[in-house]
Amino acid sequence: MMISRFSHFFKQQEVPAKTTLLQEGQISRTMFFIEKGCLRTWVNNDGKEITTQFFFEGDRVASIESFRTNRPSLYSIESLEPCILQTISQKDFRDIIENSPELRKELEEHLFKRLLHSQQLFYSYLKNNPQERYQELIKQYPHIVQRVPQHYIASYLGITSVSLSRIRNRR
What we know:
Elements: E1 11-15, E2 20-22, E3 30-36, E4 39-45, E5 48-55, E6 60-61, H1 64-69, E7 76-79, E8 83-89, H2 90-99, H3 101-127, H4 130-140, H5 142-147, H6 150-157, H7 161-170
Helix pairs in contact: 2-3, 6-7
């Protein structure tokens, strides 16, 4: 992203692992650009955390639906590792997007990729068994398996840690 032109709008934030950056139900007022580290999004289902996505260096993260509409976020955002983040406020982001057609186009592309990823995950849940979903994850996103603790991967795949252990041992 061409944020260097707009660097004066960004603030650096360093957070330790296991830091909640946005709580489900809050309105998202900040967008995060990951310089170093790993974030995850997750939802609460009757006290059980279900991981919905992982983000790494170079990714940008916000509850974009909440960020754009001022409605409560459907999910939480949390750091899995110590992170160095560049943050931008909702207001500054809006100002930049309104005054930069190339950044608006880049945002559209980013949103399209997020939508595509969500659809792939959704259809994978419908079509594939847990073993196939795990193999797909390894093939498409090997860095997730290398950096993310097993219990988060299991929740992302919609299975228990024990089931994931069995799947991994079959390979």
